[in-house]
UniProtKB/TrEMBL annotation:
This is Immunity protein 10. It comes from Glycomyces buryatensis. It holds the Pfam family Imm10. InterPro entries: Imm10.
Length: 132
């Protein structure tokens, strides 16, 4: 899946950190990462909810499953595991970034926070370059 991100923003609501990215226009694609900032309890662990959450267009969703995430000033590329690719209906997101410096910085900060939260075995290879 490919699209150009025209808006991005991070947030913290209670114990959850999130990062949303959206294509320009009301009908465009969007992508949301969420991660838990607090210790995961046993019931969440048993359900497989002890890692970050990925949502595409409010339709496809998955916990974990990002193998590699590469971000620079112009693009964000996300590769999914075969299991996540089945759940999300795509093996990869290739996003062009048309964001301000502040949005890029915020997006990079939230990506690190979210994708490195939860179960260590689900942490992806995360490469962020050229963004402060």
């Amino acid at each position: 899946m490919e699209f150009t991100v025209a808006q991005a923003g991070g947030y913290i609501e209670g114990r959850v950190a999130g990062l949303g990215m959206r294509e320009a226009g009301d009908e465009g694609h969007f992508f949301i990462f969420q991660g838990d900032l607090e210790e995961i309890d046993e019931s969440e662990r048993a359900m497989g909810w002890d890692t970050y959450h990925v949502n595409i267009d409010d339709e496809e969703t998955n916990y974990g499953g990002i193998v590699r995430c590469v971000m620079d000033r112009e693009s964000l590329r996300i590769e999914f595991s075969p299991e996540a690719a089945d759940a999300l209906d795509t093996s990869e997101l290739s996003l062009a970034l048309e964001l301000t410096d502040a949005e890029l910085s915020e997006a990079a900060r939230y990506l690190r926070m979210i994708l490195l939260s939860g179960r260590a075995s689900e942490h992806p290879e995360l490469l962020i370059s050229g963004i402060e």
